[in-house]
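B., you asked whether I could sanity-check this one before it goes into the benchmark set. Here's the sequence:
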Amino acid sequence: MTDKTVLISQQGAVRILTNSNPGARNAITPTLYAELSAALADAQNDPEVGAIVFTGAGDFFCSGGDLNLLAKRRELPASERREKLEGLHDLIRAIRDCGKPVIAAVEGGAAGAGLSMALACDMLVSASDAFYTVAYVKVGLTPDGGATAFLSEFVSRQVLTEMCLTGDRMPAERLHALGAVNRLTDKGTALAEAIALAAKVADGPQRASARIKTLCRQAHRATLEEQLDAEAVYMVESQADAEAAEGIGAFLGKRKADFVALRHNKQDAP
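And here's what the prediction gave me:
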């Protein structure tokens, strides 16, 4: 038995992080923020990890915040309520800023802050019968965890407003059509598909991948000039990197690039 909220496992170069509170549909616990942030940092610093999959135990991704805990926060001063909320926001930043690709695997559904965590990931694999909801309005609350920011990247203001004011469920099929979901899978297979996708990117050049992740994350809100400048900075850095030497050399030599061996050689070097 374990009292850990975040279960950690490894499949090849893919680190799997599981939010384990299945009795409450993986509702957020007080320990999730610190445990998941630490697990992400550990995965980022581990050269054996090329990509990360984040999922929920059982048949549901995350039902959001624990309303029993949120009800008690009414008694706290505003400054303390803000401090506790920043725990969630720091976790969202940790997911977003992780240098390695983070892929969400969603079964069942993602509600409230669960939706925010899923959308904070770099890619999203979802069971076709899953749903997504910004449910805050139903209990007299407003969205947090970056929900409105993430949703605004792929839905119109009108659709965003409808989702937030009604709290209605949006099926995975619609989010897939809107571009928020990368892969739709049969029920019960989201984790396996997410691991396969993660494995595909895990053997790539890690430093280049981290730069690509940053470029993609900021592209929707940057001006063309800002993005051109960022691309120039990263291209100049990448050209001098051993990863580029390996990748270009492999292409010209008509062989497959071995970025994993490159990482191990660097790690073993005196």
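One thing to flag: The two ends are 41 Å apart (CA to CA). Otherwise nothing jumped out at me.
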